[in-house]
Design a protein that fits this description.
The complex is a heterodimer of chains A (101) and B (162). By secondary structure, chain A is mostly helical. In chain A, 64% of the residues lie in helices and 12% in strands. Chain A is built from 5 helices and 2 strands, in the order ααααββα. The N and C termini of chain A lie far apart (48 Å). Chain B contains 4 helices and 8 strands; from the N terminus they run ββααββββββαα. Chain B has a single domain (5-161), classed as Alpha-D-Glucose-1,6-Bisphosphate, Chain A, domain 4, CATH 3.30.530.20. Classes of the chains: A mainly alpha (101), B alpha+beta (162).
């Protein structure tokens, strides 16, 4: 299965997790309290997010904290820039067509 | 003339592209709906759009392919669903073979294209939407148009280089 930023944000629960972690690092328990789903379901999403490299785990004393890897999330913007460029190229050509009409 | 504006609403499976053109509405409408004209601009260089059939009306079909610099062909079918000439049209786009038979693996992408006169200019407002999150993700991963634009592989190369 593909593991990238788009996979990471494809699910609404994963987007919610990322929104929370973007604000602050959280322990698995603290995170699970924000969701109605089971702890296992949240763990499963965390596993996918970790594999997509948008979430990192750090040990702090006896607790594990999840952190959002914001650098990785910039990939979306890079992709959108490419998307924009594609449309700009296309529209520049449309400008030329319109001049000749 | 004006810059292309992209707004993303990934949670609602939508992407929106807007741009102003220095031409009257009827010309812009023509450029979007007449295949001879579409073929001149639809494919970003060095690709070319080549129309096989165009029947621009509600229920009609535009069948075309993107021709790559190495002879690659990516066929698409655009089913035109709603036409409100010259203000807007809606269509659904899927990848297909040269006979227009849809490729079952590619999720449909919907267009809602609006055209609005603004003095001498025309504002074009394109909304791209997807049925499912998975569908959007797949199209994004394919770089939207089946390989002629930048896919994720290229993105990875770009990130590795950058």
């Amino acid at each position: 299965m593909r593991r990238d930023i788009f996979q990471a944000i494809a699910d609404p629960t994963r987007r919610a997790i990322l929104s929370l972690l973007a604000l602050q690092a959280m322990t698995p328990n603290a995170l699970a309290q924000h969701f109605d789903s089971t702890r296992q379901a949240v763990s499963k999403h965390i596993k996918i997010l970790t594999e997509c490299e948008v979430v990192k785990q750090k040990q702090s004393g006896r607790e594990i904290y999840y952190h959002a890897n914001l650098q990785k999330m910039k990939e979306i913007d890079i992709w959108l820039d490419q998307f924009r460029k594609q449309w700009e190229d296309r529209f520049d050509q449309l400008d030329d067509v319109l001049k000749d009409l | 003339m004006s810059n292309t504006v992209i707004s993303k609403d990934l949670a609602n499976k939508k992407l929106r592209v807007t741009r102003t053109f220095a031409a009257p509405l009827e010309k812009v409408w023509k450029a979007w709906t007449v295949s001879d004209l579409l073929d001149k601009w639809w494919a970003p260089k060095p690709w070319k759009a080549v129309t096989k059939t165009m029947d621009f009306r509600e229920g009609g079909l535009w069948l075309y392919y993107m021709l790559g610099p190495n002879g690659e062909q990516f066929w698409s079918r655009v089913d035109i669903t709603i036409v409100d000439s010259p203000n807007s049209f809606s269509a659904t786009c899927v990848f297909c073979d040269e006979n227009g038979t849809p490729n079952a693996d590619t999720p449909p992408m919907h267009w809602f294209n609006r055209f609005k006169a603004d003095g001498e200019n025309t504002i074009v407002d394109v909304t791209l939407s997807f049925n499912t999150e998975e569908g959007m993700q797949k199209i994004i991963a394919m770089g939207f148009e089946g390989g002629f634009s930048m896919g994720l592989d290229n993105l990875e190369e770009l990130l590795a280089a950058g």
